[in-house]
Amino acid sequence: EHDVLALGHAGCGPSLALGLAVGARIKGDKGYFVSVIGDGSLTSGLAYEGLSNIIAQNPRNLMIILNDNGMAISQNVGWLAKWRGQWLPHLRAQLELDEDFQQFESVTEALAPKVPLGPLALSLGRGIKSAIQKTLIPEIGHFWDEMGFNYLGPVDGHNLNELIEMIALARQYSDKVPFVHVLTNKGQGWAPATEDPTYYHQPGPLKPGEEKLTYSNVFSQALLDIMQEDPSVVAISAAMLEGTELVTVKEVFPDRVFDVGICEQ
User: Fold this and answer.
1) Interior CA angle at 26 toward 25 and 30, to 5°?
2) How far is CA 218 from CA 14, 107, 139, 212, 225, in A?
3) What are residue 236's phi and psi, to 5 degrees?
């Protein structure tokens, strides 16, 4: 009912959401569109093409939600991965969701005409609010702010009430597209998937007692043989070390196996 598109490639969500949002605006429809993108997908250059166009168009009927679980199929790689776990989500989120904090600027706007130097007082109030936010915002949040989004979060994605409140708050922003940073754990809710999120990303069917060699098993062993004979051979994976069994090869040749993240292009 709500998921308009389901695709097999990562990174294209922002572009598709922008097309839907702009199309709805042109037709006069009142729909609101949400692009949920994972931190793994943000290793794809395609994602930034879409985000850049969103900033240029600045639609008022679109929201970006970053589902940050530190994973693609396996552990995420690249610049975004280093920010994982370097902030306290609850403190920042609780402050943003606090009614008094939300009303701080509106109170100063109401008081400005009634006091001497009203515009200065309003500017000071906005500055104080902004300073508090920037003190608690993770450095990665400044990146999205500078890019041109209204960054909100990070928020605990497994706290449904808090998440709903944050999304409702984001809907109130009209000057810039809101960017809601959500922290989650891959496999949350089912112990086997939580303990081994890489395997349970897409487990294949297996009958009890049945073990067969896969194409990936054969490929990795053949590649190992080749790399042992030829030191000039390297292996490159696009966030698929496990799926291609290159994780085994990387254990033997850690400096000759490269995981470059999701590179859909």
Assistant:
1) 30
2) 38, 68, 44, 11, 11
3) -125, 135
> For residues 67 and 64, what is the distance between their CA atoms, to the nearest angstrom?
10
pLDDT one-digit tens code per residue, 84-116 = 555 544 555 555 555 665 566 666 667 667 766
Using the Cα atoms of residue 87, residue 88, residue 93 and residue 98 in order, give the sign of their dihedral.
negative
**Looking at residue 195, what DSSP letter applies?**
H
Domain edges within the chain:
13-87+138-192, 204-259
CB 108 within 8 A of CB 122: yes
Contact 126, 105 (CB under 8 A): yes
pLDDT digits (tens, 9 = 90+) for 225-262: 999 999 999 999 887 888 788 988 999 999 999 988 87
| Residue 33 host element (H or E) | strand 33-38
Query: pTM (2 decimals)?
Result: 0.69
Q: Closest by alpha carbon to 66, among 186, 179, 201, 188?
A: 179
Instruction: Note whether 89 and 204 are within 8 A (CB).
Output: no
The CATH code of domain 13-87+138-192 reads 3.40.50.970
